[in-house]
Specification:
Blueprint lengths: L1 H12 L2 H92 L37 H32 L1
Helix pairs in contact: 2-3
Length: about 180
Amino acid sequence: MIWSLLAPLWQAIKAPRVLAGIAGLLIVAGLLIAVSQYRSRVHELEALRKADAASVAKAQIEARAKAYAQKQAVEAKYRAIAERTDHEYQEQLADARTAADRYIAAHRVRSQASQGGSGGPGAAPDDRGAGLPQDLPADAVMVSASDVQACTGAVAYALKARDAFLSAAQASLSKDN
């Protein structure tokens, strides 16, 4: 029964023109499907590219933030080291100046007049003391006290800088190993 209904249709389809038309329609349909698939794939790839670009941008921002935080931490560490070193230097400078003051007091060049002497066998004929010039500073220690202080400060600073450098170098070497 079904065959009897489909038989005339089959006879009409078997005609060469109809078969060519159907083949053409199938080719066009296939091309439309392929183009549709291609366009959807292009859109998928474009969406993936945009997502990748967004994730790369996000990763770059995160990397910059992390690098900035690390830089700030290192700078804070070095700032703390510098402050500690400066504090230690100020303490050492105060100690060094106290020691220099003691040295100046103990080794000051004094005339006999300032020592309560009245000129004795070593006194100069003009009563200035034991051959000391009149313009000699009262705190003379072969150099003036301010020169001793300046030298003391420079030496204390240099020693502290040397200690800081050696500590940093040692820390850097132990970090690398």
